[in-house]
Protein backbone atom coordinates (compact mmCIF):
# COMPACT_ATOMS: atom_id res chain seq x y z
CA UNK A 1 0.00 0.00 0.00
CA UNK A 2 1.26 3.53 -0.80
CA UNK A 3 2.37 5.25 2.43
CA UNK A 4 -0.02 7.90 3.69
CA UNK A 5 0.89 11.49 2.84
CA UNK A 6 0.37 14.59 4.95
CA UNK A 7 0.46 17.81 2.90
CA UNK A 8 1.02 21.06 4.77
CA UNK A 9 0.34 24.66 3.88
CA UNK A 10 3.29 26.89 4.82
CA UNK A 11 2.41 30.44 5.97
CA UNK A 12 0.40 30.25 9.17
CA UNK A 13 0.48 26.44 9.27
CA UNK A 14 4.06 25.09 9.32
CA UNK A 15 5.74 28.38 10.04
CA UNK A 16 4.85 31.57 11.85
CA UNK A 17 5.98 33.97 9.14
CA UNK A 18 3.86 37.00 10.02
CA UNK A 19 6.61 39.31 11.33
CA UNK A 20 8.79 38.88 8.24
CA UNK A 21 5.89 39.03 5.76
CA UNK A 22 4.66 42.30 7.23
CA UNK A 23 8.20 43.73 7.38
CA UNK A 24 8.90 42.94 3.73
CA UNK A 25 5.47 44.08 2.63
CA UNK A 26 5.92 47.41 4.40
CA UNK A 27 9.40 47.82 2.93
CA UNK A 28 7.83 47.17 -0.49
CA UNK A 29 4.98 49.65 -0.26
CA UNK A 30 7.21 52.29 1.32
CA UNK A 31 8.58 52.69 -2.22
CA UNK A 32 5.19 54.29 -3.02
CA UNK A 33 5.23 56.32 0.21
CA UNK A 34 2.32 54.25 1.54
CA UNK A 35 1.72 53.89 5.26
CA UNK A 36 2.64 50.52 6.79
CA UNK A 37 0.06 47.74 7.18
CA UNK A 38 -0.38 46.00 10.54
CA UNK A 39 -0.20 42.37 11.64
CA UNK A 40 -4.01 42.37 11.90
CA UNK A 41 -4.25 43.43 8.26
CA UNK A 42 -2.20 40.42 7.19
CA UNK A 43 -5.12 37.98 7.48
CA UNK A 44 -6.88 39.89 4.68
CA UNK A 45 -3.77 40.24 2.52
CA UNK A 46 -2.04 36.84 2.61
CA UNK A 47 -3.15 33.60 0.96
CA UNK A 48 -2.72 34.10 -2.78
CA UNK A 49 1.02 34.70 -2.94
CA UNK A 50 3.21 37.79 -2.96
CA UNK A 51 1.73 39.56 -6.01
CA UNK A 52 -1.80 39.56 -4.63
CA UNK A 53 -0.49 40.48 -1.18
CA UNK A 54 1.26 43.56 -2.60
CA UNK A 55 -1.79 44.56 -4.66
CA UNK A 56 -4.10 44.20 -1.67
CA UNK A 57 -1.74 46.12 0.66
CA UNK A 58 -1.56 49.03 -1.80
CA UNK A 59 -5.33 49.07 -2.16
CA UNK A 60 -5.78 48.97 1.62
CA UNK A 61 -3.54 52.03 1.91
CA UNK A 62 -5.54 53.86 -0.73
CA UNK A 63 -3.43 53.26 -3.82
CA UNK A 64 -4.66 51.34 -6.88
CA UNK A 65 -1.64 49.82 -8.60
CA UNK A 66 -1.08 50.23 -12.31
CA UNK A 67 -0.19 46.81 -13.79
CA UNK A 68 3.26 48.06 -14.87
CA UNK A 69 4.12 48.94 -11.23
CA UNK A 70 3.78 45.35 -10.01
CA UNK A 71 6.96 43.66 -11.38
CA UNK A 72 9.27 46.21 -9.71
CA UNK A 73 7.41 45.95 -6.40
CA UNK A 74 7.45 42.16 -6.54
CA UNK A 75 11.19 42.24 -7.12
CA UNK A 76 11.59 44.59 -4.16
CA UNK A 77 9.53 42.26 -1.95
CA UNK A 78 11.42 39.12 -3.03
CA UNK A 79 14.85 40.76 -2.48
CA UNK A 80 13.97 42.06 0.99
CA UNK A 81 12.26 38.84 2.09
CA UNK A 82 15.12 36.67 0.80
CA UNK A 83 17.84 38.83 2.39
CA UNK A 84 16.16 38.60 5.78
CA UNK A 85 15.27 34.91 5.79
CA UNK A 86 14.68 33.23 8.15
CA UNK A 87 14.32 36.44 10.16
CA UNK A 88 11.86 35.97 13.00
CA UNK A 89 10.15 33.01 11.30
CA UNK A 90 9.84 29.85 13.41
CA UNK A 91 7.99 26.53 13.18
CA UNK A 92 4.81 26.44 15.25
CA UNK A 93 5.14 24.66 18.62
CA UNK A 94 5.08 20.88 18.40
CA UNK A 95 5.53 20.76 14.61
CA UNK A 96 8.94 19.08 14.61
CA UNK A 97 7.88 16.40 17.10
CA UNK A 98 4.70 15.73 15.11
CA UNK A 99 6.63 15.42 11.82
CA UNK A 100 9.28 13.18 13.43
CA UNK A 101 6.53 10.93 14.78
CA UNK A 102 4.75 10.71 11.42
CA UNK A 103 8.01 10.01 9.57
CA UNK A 104 9.02 7.32 12.08
CA UNK A 105 5.80 5.49 11.12
CA UNK A 106 6.60 5.72 7.39
CA UNK A 107 4.38 8.67 6.50
CA UNK A 108 5.38 11.00 3.70
CA UNK A 109 5.18 14.76 4.12
CA UNK A 110 4.86 17.54 1.53
CA UNK A 111 4.32 21.29 1.29
CA UNK A 112 1.64 22.94 -0.89
CA UNK A 113 1.86 26.72 -0.49
CA UNK A 114 0.76 29.70 -2.53
CA UNK A 115 4.07 31.35 -1.63
CA UNK A 116 6.45 31.48 -4.59
CA UNK A 117 8.16 28.07 -4.71
CA UNK A 118 11.64 29.65 -4.62
CA UNK A 119 10.86 31.62 -1.46
CA UNK A 120 9.32 28.58 0.21
CA UNK A 121 12.35 26.42 -0.63
CA UNK A 122 14.91 28.97 0.55
CA UNK A 123 13.01 29.55 3.80
CA UNK A 124 12.68 25.82 4.54
CA UNK A 125 16.36 25.30 3.68
CA UNK A 126 17.49 28.08 6.02
CA UNK A 127 15.42 26.52 8.80
CA UNK A 128 16.92 23.10 7.92
CA UNK A 129 13.51 21.56 7.33
CA UNK A 130 13.76 20.59 3.65
CA UNK A 131 14.72 16.99 4.36
CA UNK A 132 11.29 16.30 5.87
CA UNK A 133 9.45 16.77 2.59
CA UNK A 134 9.04 14.57 -0.48
CA UNK A 135 7.68 17.53 -2.45
CA UNK A 136 7.56 21.31 -2.03
CA UNK A 137 5.31 23.21 -4.44
CA UNK A 138 4.40 26.89 -4.59
CA UNK A 139 1.86 29.18 -6.19
CA UNK A 140 3.99 29.33 -9.35
CA UNK A 141 4.90 25.62 -9.62
CA UNK A 142 1.93 24.67 -11.78
CA UNK A 143 -0.38 26.59 -14.11
CA UNK A 144 -2.92 26.67 -11.26
CA UNK A 145 -2.67 27.30 -7.53
CA UNK A 146 -4.78 26.72 -4.43
CA UNK A 147 -7.78 26.49 -4.25
CA UNK A 148 -7.57 24.74 -7.65
CA UNK A 149 -7.45 20.97 -7.06
CA UNK A 150 -4.60 20.71 -9.60
CA UNK A 151 -2.14 22.29 -7.17
CA UNK A 152 -2.78 19.73 -4.42
CA UNK A 153 -3.10 16.76 -6.80
CA UNK A 154 0.15 17.81 -8.52
CA UNK A 155 1.87 17.97 -5.12
CA UNK A 156 0.58 14.49 -4.21
CA UNK A 157 1.91 13.12 -7.49
CA UNK A 158 5.37 14.71 -7.02
CA UNK A 159 5.52 13.29 -3.49
CA UNK A 160 4.74 9.80 -4.80
CA UNK A 161 1.50 9.73 -2.83
CA UNK A 162 -2.01 8.52 -3.51
CA UNK A 163 -4.85 11.09 -3.24
CA UNK A 164 -6.93 8.40 -1.49
CA UNK A 165 -4.30 8.18 1.25
CA UNK A 166 -3.59 11.88 1.69
CA UNK A 167 -4.70 14.63 4.05
CA UNK A 168 -4.19 18.39 3.77
CA UNK A 169 -3.34 20.53 6.82
CA UNK A 170 -3.87 24.29 6.57
CA UNK A 171 -4.86 27.53 8.27
CA UNK A 172 -7.05 29.29 5.69
CA UNK A 173 -9.91 29.03 3.21
CA UNK A 174 -7.69 28.10 0.25
CA UNK A 175 -6.35 25.05 2.08
CA UNK A 176 -9.74 23.69 3.06
CA UNK A 177 -11.16 24.48 -0.39
CA UNK A 178 -8.29 22.87 -2.31
CA UNK A 179 -8.72 19.73 -0.22
CA UNK A 180 -12.47 19.66 -0.84
CA UNK A 181 -11.93 20.28 -4.57
CA UNK A 182 -9.44 17.38 -4.70
CA UNK A 183 -11.66 15.05 -2.65
CA UNK A 184 -9.09 14.91 0.16
CA UNK A 185 -9.86 15.26 3.92
CA UNK A 186 -8.61 18.43 5.60
CA UNK A 187 -7.35 19.44 9.01
CA UNK A 188 -7.50 23.11 10.03
CA UNK A 189 -5.17 24.73 12.55
CA UNK A 190 -6.45 27.73 14.53
CA UNK A 191 -3.18 29.64 14.98
CA UNK A 192 -2.68 30.90 11.40
CA UNK A 193 -3.93 33.77 9.28
CA UNK A 194 -7.54 32.97 8.45
CA UNK A 195 -9.74 36.05 8.08
CA UNK A 196 -12.80 34.03 9.12
CA UNK A 197 -13.32 31.54 11.99
CA UNK A 198 -11.90 28.24 10.75
CA UNK A 199 -15.06 26.36 11.81
CA UNK A 200 -16.95 28.28 9.12
CA UNK A 201 -14.64 26.75 6.47
CA UNK A 202 -15.96 23.28 7.42
CA UNK A 203 -12.68 21.37 7.48
CA UNK A 204 -12.92 17.62 8.07
CA UNK A 205 -11.23 18.10 11.44
CA UNK A 206 -9.77 20.89 13.60
CA UNK A 207 -6.71 20.50 15.81
CA UNK A 208 -5.74 23.04 18.44
CA UNK A 209 -2.02 22.17 18.43
CA UNK A 210 0.40 19.93 16.53
CA UNK A 211 0.51 17.51 19.49
CA UNK A 212 -2.88 16.34 18.13
CA UNK A 213 -1.53 15.57 14.65
CA UNK A 214 -0.77 11.90 15.31
CA UNK A 215 -0.52 8.88 12.98
CA UNK A 216 -3.76 7.60 14.57
CA UNK A 217 -5.62 10.79 13.66
CA UNK A 218 -4.32 10.70 10.08
CA UNK A 219 -5.34 7.03 9.69
CA UNK A 220 -8.78 7.74 11.17
CA UNK A 221 -9.44 10.61 8.75
CA UNK A 222 -8.18 8.69 5.72
CA UNK A 223 -10.15 5.61 6.80
CA UNK A 224 -13.35 7.63 7.25
CA UNK A 225 -12.90 9.18 3.77
CA UNK A 226 -12.42 5.72 2.27
CA UNK A 227 -15.65 4.51 3.85
CA UNK A 228 -17.50 7.61 2.57
CA UNK A 229 -16.09 7.20 -0.94
CA UNK A 230 -16.98 3.50 -1.04
CA UNK A 231 -20.53 4.18 0.18
O1 LIG B 1 2.10 33.51 0.79
C1 LIG B 1 0.85 33.44 0.67
O2 LIG B 1 0.14 34.35 0.23
C2 LIG B 1 0.14 32.19 1.10
O3 LIG B 1 0.98 31.22 1.61
P1 LIG B 1 0.35 29.83 2.15
O4 LIG B 1 -0.38 29.22 0.99
O5 LIG B 1 1.58 29.07 2.58
O6 LIG B 1 -0.54 30.17 3.31
MG1 LIG C 1 -1.54 29.62 5.08
Give structural notes.
The longest helix is centred in the last third of the chain and has 16 residues. Helix 8 links the parallel strand 6 and strand 7. 44% of the residues lie in helices and 11% in strands. Strands 5-4-1-6-7-8 form a 6-stranded parallel sheet, with helices on both faces. A two-stranded antiparallel ribbon has the order 2-3. It has 2 domains: 153 residues, HAD superfamily/HAD-like (Rossmann fold, 3-Layer(aba) Sandwich), CATH 3.40.50.1000; 67 residues, Orthogonal Bundle (DNA polymerase, domain 1). Helix 1 packs across helix 4 and helix 7 packs across helix 8. The chain has 231 residues and is α/β, with parallel strands linked by helices. InterPro entries: HAD-like_hydrolase_sf, HAD-like_sf, HAD-SF_hydro_IA, HAD_2, HAD_sf, PGP-like_dom2, PGPase_prok. Its cofactor is Mg(2+). Specifically catalyzes the dephosphorylation of 2-phosphoglycolate. Is involved in the dissimilation of the intracellular 2-phosphoglycolate formed during the DNA repair of 3'-phosphoglycolate ends, a major class of DNA lesions induced by oxidative stress. Keywords: Carbohydrate metabolism, Hydrolase, Magnesium, Metal-binding. Belongs to the HAD-like hydrolase superfamily. CbbY/CbbZ/Gph/YieH family.
